[in-house]
Amino acid sequence: MFPGSKHEWLGAELRKQIEPLDAHTPLSTERELAVRYQVSRATVRTALRGLEAAGIVYRVQGAGTFVSDSTVSKTLTLTSFSEDMRRRASRPDSRVVVAGEVPAGSVIGGELRLSVDDPVVRLVRLRLADDEPMCLETSYLPAVLVPGLLGEDLSSSLYEKLDTLGIRPVRAEQVVTAVTTEDTEAGLLVVPPGAPALRVQRIGLDHRDQPVERTTSLYRADRYDLKFGVRREPLI
Amino acid sequence: MFPGSKHEWLGAELRKQIEPLDAHTPLSTERELAVRYQVSRATVRTALRGLEAAGIVYRVQGAGTFVSDSTVSKTLTLTSFSEDMRRRASRPDSRVVVAGEVPAGSVIGGELRLSVDDPVVRLVRLRLADDEPMCLETSYLPAVLVPGLLGEDLSSSLYEKLDTLGIRPVRAEQVVTAVTTEDTEAGLLVVPPGAPALRVQRIGLDHRDQPVERTTSLYRADRYDLKFGVRREPLI
DNA sequence: AAGTGGTCTAGACCACGGG
DNA sequence: CCGTGGTCTAGACCACTTT
Fold first, then answer.
1. CATH of B72-227, one of 1.20.58.1000, 3.40.1410.10, 1.10.10.10, 3.40.190.170
2. Quick check: pTM over 0.70?
3. Which B-chain residues 191-220 have CB contacts (< 8 A) with chain A?
């Protein structure tokens, strides 16, 4: 009751109870849960839908709801490098390579829905995990949205800083490609030139579908992979 | 009313109407739609949730529901190579490189939840798009699930064949990495040895969370990228 | 203040799965 | 057959955005 809605609370509660259970263990039925937690069945279903979307349970019509066998990963969600590394039990860090304000230009301007002359903050950072170079990240942000950002310490989480400014990407569109590293990139990542890398280009959008961030991440192929779940039909 | 549920029908209906609209155009309110289509507001919300999950609309509490500006792509769903290529307006084809039955072994056995001695069908195919090599695909399937598969023409869609056998992956767990091609792979893909490639390893699961397929796809980096949308929090 | 989407209820019937 | 999750209804109140 304290923070959010009933279904959110119930979802968190069930999550805790499910944690130690083996895969394919059946949960209580929706009707039982509704009685036990003194909520309507619709609320139970909303909570379960959240767990299903998170890859924690699966449901079979006519049979029941069961604990998922998630060997690989939870459904892909939008995360920052810092969050990602902490989840992998690594210590994230970063070194700022370039930080400054430049005109958007046509490519970045188009993607962030700005004019070519509108100023954007450009930020190139080398991201480290446990002091090892992991990823070279180039971010562009509309300058009007992030006043004073360039005066701050940029070696910690950018997403946390944006959050304090009221900027919260809730959705992103990503394009993933395999590339071989150029000389300067290879030098920064401490790999031989031509070593393979995973290039992830992301446009972050806020709750009104406005672009707030455009980031290209170049990950060392030997130290990074992208794990995620997909569904045949989007969940409804 | 003909094929499925009301919310499915309504979702498809709204989808058609939304198609020509500009991004950020507001839809009718949920209450209006409920009256117009003679359904409850809950049903309208179910339909809209589907469109939201598909990246077609976004909703802002207190303001309304709006057409998404999807420059890149719809949310990632589980698709076969054939579907994927047709969506990219390319003509898919394939050449069978190897097809046979082998013992699962510890790696494949573990992933498909079989014993090391259980037989699996191994299928290596070169996938073409518009007659150009695109991807080298190695699939493993539990042999008991696919009797007679090896006697059929395997150059068309594997997923369609599986479907006729009642095998339908609804979910998959994927791991994407960047690699450089080995000599034999490079030869089949017609790229220089050492050329970059995108490696997608997938375990397909049916509606009961049972593994039914394990496929490794090696895509030419110069001809393929992976586009998808992600959300900060899973949709509920 | 008015209107929007978000949450929640109590009830009903349907489609499917298992004994 | 019975019990399961899936769909649907009609209504209510809340949190939020806009005017």
1. 3.40.1410.10
2. yes
3. 194, 196-199, 203, 207-209, 219
